[in-house]
Design brief:
about 625 residues, mainly beta, five-stranded antiparallel β-sheet, four-stranded antiparallel β-sheet, 7 helices
Length: about 625
């Protein structure tokens, strides 16, 4: 096919007219050195189109040692891999040791969340055959399979799923996605009863797909897009069937069909982030860009979409303005600040081969991955594609993609899965100074979903305010960790970190030294990085109504007075730490009762205060 003809006129204006001054990051393939060698296989005798679209990968700290681990789906006859981090940036596959045996299914998606509230992340493993599996993390280095008892043992293809707290009752609910013209069988909403058992409320919630071809669903996300704290349900779906549902805050949803989204022709992967630093989340959807201007089979040709959030569930298509339309045959994608300039960049994997070599258009087979670096222009950022220059040279049939800091050096690395091929781990060689980043794990106060799902975090550094949100949306069959990463230009201290929890309480940290992994909870009022007697005394001394217009640090629930709720919040977090300083020695970590590792700040760090009322 002729490259860059039909769409050249559209794409050329989108490339930033000024010279690109943003630093291009450098990546190195560290797959073998890190011990994450994994070649996807399948024993399906008659491979179809569905089998050519797997597998997924997920990232979480499964053993709560402070280091992120990897869960990778396998094909029929091949077990999934559980790569546990050795606390030095290398991994060992411990799937068998942890009791995982998925050799009897064709694995697809990986969805991670603490569904039973024991402090350890669980795995919902989607499949293409048989039934889905729910692997409950015991917290003792093992999983117990519980899908049947939990009521989520779907026996349809599950290309994606997402956890989120749809009613803000403090536990994680589940939405599953099925790629089929009869998707009502597999596009289901399961509400958690608070014990890790789920009830199917799809029809009552207004989410039943009622006609053939209603939604060929791939990548769902439960994420708040209007600022009311209740997550919307948004689904990237194939054949022009992407969907956008507004949360009505009562357990029901209303579909929107004309809000500037869902114009993608073949929605595959999905990514949500505040790419323009205006405080709300935008939506990127991967699709198929056919650069000769016509489709050789049943696919669209117009490529990706980037929908900029204008507020009130209205969006503007800025795909061409930002220059991210051409991603070839797109799958997983992720926003990440790869060069620590305070602006989010965009990574995407792609490529597709038809079963048994029957490719109507073989040029898609070896599509190169895409790395778009933001030009760093406030309000109207555009992107420049730099994958080859950055060393991201993957050209196989990429599917799942996640970004995460696997080696604790403060920058984000990239993992891609390959259908019937090798997983690849790209290490980011930026090696940023400690003055240019911070990472956060959230310990949710009582009444909020585990790991802070739904929390909105802003970091203020000088004139810049950066926003991240904890959510469980799919990138494509894959899920990134709830750990939040912020990159920025070097500073001596971070002016403010503000966490708005789903229950509307707020935690604020001031004058934070960068270059740390912070584990943040609610209740440390004294700034000594542990919840204890000093915090209790502050609550008791402040008991009663807050003075008008005054900062009332003990009013943790922001109701205008210090009372029993604030006291209970402190007691619920008793003896839990607030901050974890990155240390290479795993023995420097200890766990508090809900599973998270904590470490007191070293004495040479600046003081940090944690308050509740604004």
């Amino acid at each position: 096919m002729k490259r860059y003809l039909t769409w050249l006129a559209l794409i050329a204006p989108a490339v930033n007219a000024t010279a690109m001054h943003a630093q291009i990051p450098s990546f190195t393939d560290r797959t073998s050195a890190a011990g994450v060698t994994f070649t996807h296989l399948t024993g399906v005798p008659d491979i179809g189109e569905a089998e050519m679209m797997t597998p997924g990968v997920g990232v979480a700290d499964f053993n709560r040692d402070g280091w992120l681990d990897l869960f990778v789906q396998g094909g029929l006859g091949q077990n999934s891999a559980l790569f546990i981090n050795n606390c030095d940036g290398t991994f060992v596959d411990q799937a068998t040791d942890w009791g995982i045996d998925l050799t009897g299914v064709e694995g697809s998606s990986v969805t991670i969340g603490d569904v039973d509230g024991n402090g350890y992340p669980d795995v919902y493993a989607g499949v293409l055959n048989g039934r889905n599996h729910l692997l409950l993390n015991t917290g003792q280095g093992g999983f117990i399979e519980n899908a049947v008892d939990a009521g989520v043992d779907l026996q349809v293809n599950t290309f994606g799923a997402t956890f989120g707290d749809i009613e803000l009752d403090g536990d994680l609910d589940l939405y599953t996605a099925m790629w089929s013209q009869f998707s009502e069988d597999g596009c289901r909403l399961f509400v958690n009863d608070g014990t890790g058992v789920f009830v199917d409320t799809t029809e009552g919630a207004g989410l039943l797909m009622q006609r053939p071809g209603d939604c060929f669903a791939f990548s769902p996300a439960l994420v708040d897009l209007d600022g009311d704290r209740f997550p919307e349900l948004v689904v990237a779906a194939d054949f022009g069937t992407s969907r956008y549902f507004v949360n009505n805050t009562d357990g029901t949803f209303t579909g929107l069909s004309d809000n500037g989204t869902c114009t993608d022709e073949n929605g595959m992967g999905s990514a949500f982030a505040d790419f323009d630093n205006d405080g709300d989340l935008d939506w990127f959807v991967t699709s198929i860009f056919d650069d000769d201007g016509h489709a050789e089979a049943n696919w669209g040709i117009t490529g990706n979409r980037l929908y900029r959030n204008e507020g009130g569930h209205r969006y503007t298509d800025v795909t061409d303005l930002t220059g991210v339309r051409n991603g070839y045959w797109g799958w997983g994608a992720s926003f990440a600040d790869l060069n620590h300039d305070g602006f989010l960049d965009l990574v995407m994997t792609n490529g597709f081969a038809y079963p048994n070599g029957g490719d109507p258009d073989p040029t898609f087979v070896n599509d190169p991955a895409r790395v778009w670096i933001s030009d760093g222009v406030a309000n109207e950022p555009a992107f420049t594609e730099v994958a080859a220059r950055a060393g991201v040279t993957h050209t196989a049939a990429g599917k799942g993609l996640v970004t995460f800091d696997y080696d604790h050096d403060g920058d984000l690395d990239i993992v891609m899965t390959t259908n019937l091929g090798d997983l690849v781990l790209y290490r980011n060689n930026t090696n940023p100074p400690r003055s240019s980043w911070v990472e956060l794990d959230l310990v949710a106060p009582p009444g909020n979903a585990p790991d802070g799902f739904g929390a909105v975090v802003t970091v203020r550094v000088g004139p810049d305010t950066l926003t991240r949100v904890v959510h469980g949306g799919m990138t494509f069959m894959s899920q990134e960790p709830p750990r939040l990463h912020f990159g920025f230009r070097s500073v001596a201290t971070i002016d403010e970190i503000r966490i708005r929890w789903p229950d509307a309480t707020v935690t604020v940290l001031w004058n934070v030294v960068p270059g740390q992994l912070l584990i943040v909870n609610n209740g440390d009022l004294s700034g000594d990085n542990v919840v204890g007697l000093e915090d209790l005394f502050i609550v008791l001394e402040s008991w009663g109504r807050c003075p008008p217009q005054a900062l009332c640090i003990a009013d943790l629930n922001r109701d205008g007075h210090v009372g029993i709720v604030d006291l209970l919040t402190v007691l619920a977090n008793w003896h839990t730490g607030t901050l974890l300083t990155l240390m290479p020695n795993p023995s420097s970590y200890r766990r508090h009762p809900n599973g998270h590792p904590v470490r007191h700040l070293l004495h040479d760090h600046a003081p940090v205060r944690v308050v509740g009322d604004l």
